[in-house]
Each structure stands twice: as C-alpha cells, then as structure tokens.
Amino acid sequence: MKHQRIHPLPLYRSQRISKCKLQSAKVKTSGWFFIHFTLLILYLAFCLELLGPVFFYPVAFAAQPDPLLKQVEEHLEAWRLPQAEEMVSRLARENPKSAAVLDLHARLRFYQGRYEEALRFLEQALALEAANEPRQALRLLTQQTHDTVKKLRSFESAHFILSLDEVKDGILAPHALDTLEKSYQAIGQALGYFPQAKVRVEIAPDAASFHAISTLSLRDIEETGAVGICKFNKIMTISPRALMHGYRWLDSLSHEYLHYAIVGLSGNKAPIWLHEGMARFYETRWRHSELLKGNEDYLTPSNRTLLVQALEKNRFVGFKRMEPSLIYLETPEEVQLAYAEAASAVDFMVQRKGHDGIRELLSELEKRPSQEAIEKVLGSPYAAFEIQWKDFLKAKGLKEIEGSRVRRLKVKGNQKEDEEAVELKEIQSVVARNRTHLGDRLLERGRTIAAVQEYQRALQASPHSPIILIKLARVLAQRERYEEALPHLKKAQQLDPDSGNTYIQLGHLYHGTKNFSDAAAALEEAIQINPFNPTIYRLLSEVYAALGKQEQTKKSQATLERLMRAR
Q1: Three-state secondary structure call for residue 526
Q2: How many CB atoms neighbour CB 313 within 10 A?
Q3: Three-class DSSP category at 498
Q4: What is the pLDDT averaged over residues 67-85?
C-alpha cells in the first residue's frame, strides 16, 4: 500500500540500512550476491549521504548536448514509454556504441517488463564501461527481478497483466483481476484516466521475492505496513498468504493502481502526500456500485483516534515530513497518521472542488510546483489551504474509539508458526493473556463452559481486545448462544475491521442462525483479507447452496479442493 515518489530509476533505498533485517527475510543467494550486494549498499549509503534519501540513476550525458536526451529522461520519468522508445531508437541509430544510450535502452526495457533484453543491453554497456557502479546496481536489480518473475505465470484481463505463482497463489487471480478491472472503471469515472496499455501487476509469493522485485525490506512490511508499491511502471504486492493474518490485499491492489493513475495524470509530479492521500481516499471505490462525492472509508477506528489526538495536541506529521516516502517515518503510528491526514486533505478538496478539481490539480502539477498548483485550483493561498483543511477536519466532530489500535503485520517464517502464540502476545494485559491461554487449553479439552468463563474473565481485564472478543464469541456460537456472541463480534469488527477472523466467525454465526445472506457477505469480506483459509470456502459452499447459487457453490468447492491439495 505504500508508494515511493517514482524517479527515473530509484534503486535500493538506504533508509536505516542497518534495520532492514535482510537476513531475517532469509533470501537464499550465492556468495557472489552477498559480496556485490554489500558493496552496493555501501556505495548507495555513501551516495545517499550526499544526495538524499532517494538515489537517482545518473546518465552521463554532459558531454552530449543532444536535446533528445533530456526529453527521453522526461518521458521515462513519467512512464510515457512509447514516446521514450521512439527517441531511444533514434539515439541508438546515431550513437550505436554509446554506453549511455545502452543504459537508456536497458531502462526502457526494464520498465516494459522485458528483463532479458534489459540484461543484454546492460551487459553491452558494462563491456564498454565496467566500472560504472550504478549500472552494476541496475544489472543486479534486473537479474533479481528476472529470476523471480520468470517463475510466475501470467493471467490477463482487458486492461491488466497479472503475474503470480500459480501453484501457491492461483486462487488469487480471478479476485485480483476482477478488483483491478473495477478499479479501472471506478477511478476512470472519477478522474477521467483510462490507460490504453495493459498495466503489469506482480504478486510476489513471499517476503524474499517481494524484496527482490520491489526493494522493500522485511522492516518495511512489518513496521510500516508496506505490502505494495507502484514503481518501475508496474504494480507490486505481496501475497496475503505470506502474512500471518493476511491483509486487505484487494484494497491494496486498487491503492497501487491509483498511484499508477496519478503518475499518468500528473507526469509523476505529484507530491507524496497527495499521492498517498488520493490512493487512500479512492482505494475502496471499486467496492461501491455508485461513485459518490463523499467517502469516509479512510476513517477507520484507529485513523479516527489518531486524527482526534493530532487535533487535540496539534501534533500533525506535516506534509513536508512525508517526503520522499512515508516509510521513512519513525513509528507505525506516525505512518498511519500521515495516511489519515493526507486522505482527509483529499476529502477536503473533493468536498470543495469535486473529482474534477482533483483531476485539474493533477494536470496543473505537470506545469508548476505543487503549492502553486493547489493555490490555482482552490483559489486561495497555500497557507490558507492547510488552515481550511484542519478546520474541515475539526468540523467532522470525530471521536476517539477506545481500544482501537494500529495493526502490525507479521510475515510468516520458514518454520510453521503458532498463530495462537502470536495472538496471545498481542494481548497487552498479563492477566488477560493468561486467562485467554487457559481458556484455549480448556477449549482444546472440550470444556466449553469453563472456556467461556475464562474468556469472560480475560475480557474483564482487557475489554477492548478483538482477539478475546472473537475467541469468546466463537465458543458461545459453538454452544448456540448466538444472541450473546453477536455483540462481541460486532465490537471486534468495530475495533479492528481488518481482521479476517472476525468475518469468519460472523459467517459461522449467521450460518448457524440460517441467515445465509449475511453469512455470505461476511465470508466474502473474509476473502478480501485472508483468502487462504479453507474454512471460508467450506462454509461458503454450504451458504451458497442454501441460497440456491449453484455456480458460486461449485466455485467455492473447487477452491476448497485446490487449497486442500496444496497442503
């Protein structure tokens, strides 16, 4: 869900290199890779000390005053690849032995997803100038990407090419393409952007693969929630199967597609806060049958609470601190607050100028600096914009939601991990944790009444724990005490709307009360978070059968069978 300001070729980011925890990502590579990767990191760290947090791939054209060179750079930066290709071909005809032109060829092919061709151009350039470390870095990135993507299978829809691991993640393909096509239409309707070329989307099967193609580290995933990124003229996300409890992976795909659209509409000139604000504000549009002017999906319980606290203490992240990427912020709370701020600012502008105003702003960003563009579209000084936005935020009358929390993601390790143990660690109260653990052991022994009592005692010690609420509701539903269970699940949903377990238990409950329509809705929501849980499809096949939906019943049964074979 994260987007880095997309420059001609941002390579490996140095943000707190010592904290990247690359070893914990357990990337299996040769000794050659580690030697070169270490040298690369040291080199980039040195460059970044001088140039800032994002490294630009330099092309040594100072001695070549051809005006085409600058134009090619501009087209590549804005991902206008057809225009760039025409000019690069011309340059190649005029300078067939130029290493700099070969670099452009390589970058172009890399952006097109033609990785083998990119490697050939890079090898030719390195044969001419072997001591070019940025070129060596690009070659390493291209090789890693090629080695990863060649193992994936491609699926196509009208406007997208989706690559993923068919064996492990094949069940994702129909859901992903459906969501992307809905995003294409919804975002196109709002912003008037309909890219003609098919957009490439790569879903990495695990953390190591995701790092290889995106340069995002394990730290980026677990501490800042970076599960997707849009750069290199493509969308990249990590499979929800790779995370302990999944994540809103379909919203993330839509989120990253919005970044793609913003690049296209602004010539890649939009500031990070606008990038992220728009992506967060519009990311759920694919779910809605009608495009409404207002949208408050971004106001999740934790976002509401963070915004209220920021208003009360006047401690905002600030738009300038969001550059060059939100992943550079210090804490997960700061990252989420930044998203909430940016989305609410976009909300404010949509209320003032509508979707046409946002589209106009993106167009203006191609012509002038961001503050000037905002002033022109809103018709007021930039300083007034920030004041008016905060007044707009205050007028919403947001209230803190007690017990809401910023979610932390957990990447699955190579060894089978005890999800129950991971959940227990998330319960902060020691008393509640111990009571919950005892309840779990009692439930294993079939002592459901005693388990209910322990979960209730745990809830007294930690009344806002979604984990305890779900566990208590589950065992109450097992005893067919549905009326008692439902309020606990509703509270868990309110506190943590991104927990797949909540929707699975709601599906169980509604199935038990023969409320099949609500059961289907809850289980379909669970697919948007953790689609690899077999329980979802086992229940869905029964629910769809009860509703007389034969086609959906067969699909659910087929998915269940596929998941069971893969185990």
Answers
A1: helix
A2: 8
A3: coil
A4: 92
**DSSP readout, 177-218?**
HHHHHHHHHHHHHHH----SSPEEEEEESSHHHHHHHH---H
Q: Are 204 and 213 in contact (CB under 8 A)?
A: yes
The CATH superfamily assigned to 153-395 is Neutral Protease Domain 2 (1.10.390.10)
Q: How many Å apart are CA 517 and CA 41, to the nearest integer?
A: 54
- 10 Å Cβ neighbour count for 31? 7
What does the angle CA 503 – CA 331 – CA 19 come to, to the nearest 5 degrees? Answer: 105
- The residue ranges of every structural domain in the chain are 17-144, 153-395, 418-497, 498-567
Half-sphere exposure of 313 (CA within 13 A, CB side): 9
Pick the CATH number of 498-567 from 3.40.50.300, 1.25.40.10, 2.30.130.10, 1.10.10.200: 1.25.40.10
User: Do 153-395 and 498-567 have matching folds?
Assistant: no
DSSP letter (8 states) at residue 243: B
Cα–Cα distance, 20 to 4 (Å, whole number): 17
Report yes or no: 534 and 560 within 8 Å, Cβ to Cβ: yes
Fold exhibited by the domain 17-144 = 1.25.40
- Of residues 2 and 355, the one with the higher pLDDT is 355
Q: Which residue has the tokens 């060059």?
A: 324
Give residue 449's identity as a one-letter amino acid code.
Answer: I
51: closest CA among 297, 324, 241?
324
Q: What is the pLDDT of residues 367-412, one digit of tens each?
A: 999 999 999 999 999 999 999 999 999 999 999 999 898 888 999 8
Residue with the larger pLDDT of the pair 61 and 150: 150
Residue 85: which pLDDT band, with cuts at 50, 70 and 90? very high
CATH architecture of the domain covering 418-497: Alpha Horseshoe (1.25)
Q: β-pairing, 234-238 with 228-231?
A: antiparallel
**Spatial CA neighbour of 268 closest among 79, 103, 437, 114:** 79
The count of other CB atoms within 10 Å of the CB of residue 397 is: 7
Q: At 79, is the pLDDT very low, low, confident or very high (cuts 50, 70, 90)?
A: very high
* CA 424 distance to own-chain centroid: 26
Rounded to 10°, the helix 382-395/370-378 angle is: 60
Residues in the chain: 567
Sorting pLDDT into bands at 50, 70 and 90, what band is 282? Answer: very high
Give the integer Cα–Cα distance in Å for 368 and 537: 52
Among 395, 183, 398, smallest CA distance to 279 is for: 183
Q: What is the pLDDT of residues 435-488, one digit of tens each?
A: 999 999 999 999 999 999 999 999 999 999 999 999 999 999 999 999 999 999
- Specify the pLDDT at position 54: 30
Q: Could you give the CA distance from residue 478 to residue 457 in angstroms, rounded to a whole number? A: 19
d(CA 141, CA 164): 19
Q: How many CB atoms lie within 10 A of CB 367?
A: 11
Give 307-343 as a DSSP string.
Answer: HHHHHHHT----TGGG-S-GGGSSSHHHHHHHHHHHH
What does DSSP assign to residue 228?
E
Token output for 71: 């134009």
β-pair partners for 243: 411
